[in-house]
# Entry
Amino acid sequence: MAAKTRIPKRRIIRKDDQRGLGIIQLEETDLETLNHLLRLEDDIFGDEAVDEWFMVSNIRHGNVMLLVDLVKRKPIGIAVLMRDWDDLKKCYLADFGIKETYRGKGFGTYFLGVVLEEVRQEGFKTISLTVDINNPVAIHLYEKHGFRIVEERHNLYGEGRHRYIMEKTL
# Structure
């Protein structure tokens, strides 16, 4: 008798049949899903992608949301949220990205809007993130959603890796 494949626990946040998109929140993972997520991370973030240790911890103890292409049945975007321990009404958007072949089509705008709506419904009052100061497309996306630059940090993730700290009041 063949072993049953266990489907990872997830919560459907939004389904948009007209666009062919779905947004899910992962509550646990399996090896196959984890490998898909790591490939997605690598495609979006390259050498700055998280590894399996961080991804599993984020799924179990944070909040990982996926933007899914319902037609191809594969994740095309990721958002990872964490609670700020210094301010429990504040969360941190640790990862946010869209697979390269899907960029420039409004998916990031749509996905970020849903993520912000979920964060607000969870009772958070503020959300923050870091963004590469040399990434004007991402900076524009965040500003379009009401984020503002509150600080610039040099060498935050290593030599020459400068970031803006951006925040939004919900």
Notes: DSSP finds four helices and eight strands in the chain. Confidence is low (pLDDT under 50) at residues 1-7. The domain at 10-169 is CATH 3.40.630.30 (Aminopeptidase).
